[in-house]
Amino acid sequence: MCDAGVVDCAISDIDGCSDFDEKILPMFPLLVSTGFVMCLMAVGIGANDASNSWGTSIGAGAISMKRGLLIGGIFEWLGATLLGTGVSDKLQQGVSRFNDPNCVACGYCNSQVYNMSAGMFGALTAAGLFMTLATIYSLPVSTTHVIVGGVVGAVWYLVGAECMNWELDALGGILVSWILSPVLAGMFSILIFETTNSFVINSNSPSKRALIAFPIVIFLSIFAIVALILIKKDFFNSITTWLISCSIGLFCGICAIVWGVPYILHEMEENKLKTIVVNYDDNDDNDTTTILSIIHNDTNENKSEPIIRDGPSHDQAITLEIFKFLLVFTAVLESFAHGSNDTANAAAAFSYTFNLYKNGRNSCNVVDYNRDIGESLILSLAGICVAIGCVQFGHRVVETIGGGRLAELSFHRAWCIEFSSAITVLFASLINVPVSTTHCQVGALIAIGLWIRCPVDWKLVAQISLIWVLTLPFAIFTSAGITALTIFMIS
């Protein structure tokens, strides 16, 4: 007789086991349907979340919209394909007590694993709809929060609210991160901004100090991103993680000294620096906008000297050009890290259904199933969809982040925002508190705008805050409704 806590005989034939006592849903239609909405969700990730990394770079004029989104899409796909494994089983188990015999009961005769596949379809559909609406209105949202909310809705409908996981590394952490993410990122962005502004931009020799800082920042950026990826993947123990991160960062820093610095010096000498920096005067208290144009004048006899009009010194202009290199470099790293982690927000739910279709109820006993070739292909497909969303639809959120409504951007300010966002995510990972990269980006952007006394569009801030608050309720109730309708229709 099947009761709660009785093992499924198909999984283990120990004494006292019982035959499976729940309906087995038709898996192939669910697999195809879930695959379709996974692609929809992945396109939404690219159009909204993945575009955050390039909003400041494009808004500051460091790179064109088309080129930035194309590079972002490529590195999102690379991150998903090369390092996107090892995370898909954490989605459902991080939200609910998956192996509890009174909840999802994975491995028991009263298991809800088949119904959960309908729940994953509902979660992905709700998340995809929400991401589509947010992108249409050009509002940046957290894809992690919306897919977790979708899974919460499915679990709530199937097994009840008492089976939710409210620990800090699951649902509790999401609620904390609403405040923690923007506040931490804002504090880090101001600290980094003031440090670099004092010791580099406004120093006696800004370009010289910027060239000295260039390989150091490369080292720190690579170190932070590699450490973040390894920590989130749980690939190695803490000592090994730090050693690998430090080694890779040190190698890249040396490469920056050997090749990067000479390249920048060559660009200076050949007079190829052409840029427009909007609102550069970071110490101006009058909310004025200064436009610097470094142009090549064919009538100038000394072709190695660019003409500076309406802006700071030549030395400071060269310094900003160095920050342009750093800004684009950091955005590339963030795209790769984002692809390696957040692509699984779409792929994880589909991987659950795929694994159940392939292994049946015995999938509860499959060890490391999320590292096989099937999972890798799923993540690669999701990465392609993320890239498509980034390239085709990413301009909407980019215009919100980098359009100047939250803060006017220079290369220096934009780099401070990007770097502080990466540092915040790394710091939060160390203390096991999940934060949203979207919330970090927006928080850092607003903090910089307030710090330098730029006019901030508070109506836009209110709209963004409102949609953040609505993320979980929308995802929970929509997912629960779709899950109920799906089970009704196919059973």
Report on the architecture of this protein.
The chain is mostly helical and 491 residues long. The chain has one domain (27-490). The protein is 67% helix and 2% strand. It is built from 16 helices and three strands. The protein has helices at residues 27-49, 52-59, 65-83, 89-95, 113-136, 143-159, 171-201, 206-233, 238-269, 314-342, 344-359, 373-393, 395-402, 411-430, 437-451, 458-490; strands at 275-278, 291-295, 307-309. The chain has a three-stranded antiparallel beta sheet with strand order 1-2-3, covered by helices on one side. Helix 3 crosses helix 10 (314-342), helix 4 crosses helix 11 (344-359) and helix 10 runs parallel beside helix 14. It is elongated and about 85 Å long. The two termini are 23 Å apart. Mean pLDDT is 78; it is low at 271-311 and 366-370.
Task: Give a brief description.
The chain is 67% helix and 2% strand. The chain is mainly alpha-helical and 491 residues long.
Record keyword descriptors for this entry.
mainly alpha, 3-stranded antiparallel beta sheet, 16 helices, elongated, 491 residues, 2% strand
Structural class: mainly alpha
The count of strands amounts to: 3
- Give me the Rg, rounded: 25 Å
Q: What is the number of independent domains?
A: 1
Average pLDDT taken over every residue: 78
What general form does the structure show?
A: elongated
| Order of neighbouring strands in the sheet with most strands | 1-2-3
Q: H/E order of the elements?
A: HHHHHHHHHEEEHHHHHHH
Strand content: under 5%
- The number of helical elements comes to 16
Largest sheet: 3 strands, antiparallel
Helical content class? 55-70%
Poorly predicted regions: 271-311, 366-370
